[in-house]
Amino acid sequence: MSSLETYIENLWIVDSHEHTVQEDERVSSKVDPLQIFLSQYASSDLISAGLTVEDYVRALDTRIPLKERWKIIEPYWIKAKNTSYFEVIKLAVHDIYGISELNEDTVEDLSIKMNSLNKKGLYKWILKDLAKIKISVYDGISDVVEVDRNFFMPVVRLEDFILIRSREDVRKVSASVKIPIHSLRDLERALEIKVQSLLDKIVGFKIALAYRRDIHFEKVTYDEAEKVFNKILGSEKTFIRYTSPDGIRLTMSDELSVEECRPLQNYMVHRILETASRQRLPVQIHTGLQEGNLNLVSNSNPLHLANLFMEYYDVKFDVFHGSYPYVRELAVLAKNFPNVYVDLCWLHAVSSLSAKSALEELLDMVPANKIIGFGGDYKHVEGIYGHSKIARKNIFEVLQEKVDRGRFSLEEAKNIARMLLHDNLLEIFTTIKV
């Protein structure tokens, strides 16, 4: 192992992005290897390879014996295991649980080993001792902020305030902040109350609306947004008949479409960015490939965000996933705008080769302090470990090649590695103290 590789292997990582279930919840019940490893990513490739959604659901049903469930996915596992998503699983299963290959003969053994280790201390062992991750920025999706701060620091999306489409949505926001909401001004006040209640708990904001619409958030007037909000509150002619999980039948006013509500969404996104500016908090934004199947990736082109970068010049934007496949577009934006940073979170797991290629080009084009080298983006700690191992290897290989060509000295390469994996994120998230 070269001195550069050893140096990178021993660096502590400040991780930009995780969705991981909290340890107390993880260890409170028996774990199932298919539910863990197919909770995201690899399942998308299985479906892309031909697995039906119905069979995917059956594969996660623990009432069915594990080996029988494995046989459901096995034909598609064989077809899809060439992808980087499966390399993450392979590394985790081998290094953490000592199983060289996951198959019909080993899946039950894996289940036994996973459950034997599924106890308090698991996260310290995997995240700290094995992966050497100092701290992770945490996106609980539903704005979870009560987290174990030995491992995680949360950001919030506040999508309840953005994606309002019905009177029921307004009622839920009203209940959450305990004030009546009868106007757009009331909604703005509710947002202020919510943010104030979170300021001592969060380190930034997150925008992930590319899963619902494009990410061009036009500047709209109060009147334009108010018309939509008033239409939502004034809905009275059409209704939704809804049966709750406990069997109670409810009648609720109908909802507007996401497209109809664009002016209100745009208005509220700008209000959140104004808040980020006032509070001097960074904003993470999902761009590029979306997780899952049947998404429209063009909705996530980072060029849609240029107006935000220009207007909110005092907000630091942590732009996710290298915007893959729009890597060069994001590189140009980061080169032009001092407040735009390229985050390679998830990308090493999406495509190891693409992540290496992106990093190689970024280091020729963008100041090194503006590149975030790793964010796991996993719901389970095993995925974080496997992904981090690929990321370290990629960063080493890119930097070693530049050292070999005389582009960087060894000390310059080591310094850049530390910036990518540790220092840069702390410069963006100044409230994180490690």
Structure keywords:
about 425 residues, alpha/beta, TIM Barrel, 2 domains, 8-stranded parallel sheet, two-stranded antiparallel ribbon, 20 helices, 10 strands, globular
Task: Summarize the helices and strands and which ones pair or pack.
Blueprint lengths: L2 H7 L3 E6 L4 H4 L6 H5 L4 H7 L4 H7 L6 H15 L3 H14 L9 H11 L4 H9 L2 E7 L12 E5 L2 H4 L4 H11 L6 H15 L5 E4 L14 H12 L5 E5 L5 E5 L8 H18 L3 E3 L20 H6 L5 E3 L7 H10 L3 E4 L3 H4 L1 H14 L5 E2 L8 H24 L5 H19 L6
Parallel strand pairs: 1-2, 2-3, 3-4, 4-7, 7-8, 8-9, 9-10
Antiparallel strand pairs: 5-6
Describe what this molecule looks like in 3D:
- Helix 13 packs across helix 14 and helix 19 packs across helix 20.
- The strands form two sheets. Strands 1-2-3-4-7-8-9-10 form an eight-stranded parallel sheet, sandwiched between helices. A two-stranded antiparallel sheet has the order 5-6.
- It starts with a helix and ends in a 6-residue tail after the last helix.
- The protein contains 20 helices and ten strands.
- The radius of gyration is 23 Å and the shape is globular.
- About 40% of the residues are buried.
- The chain has two domains: about 90 residues; about 270 residues, Alpha-Beta Barrel (TIM Barrel).
- By secondary structure, it is an alpha/beta fold.
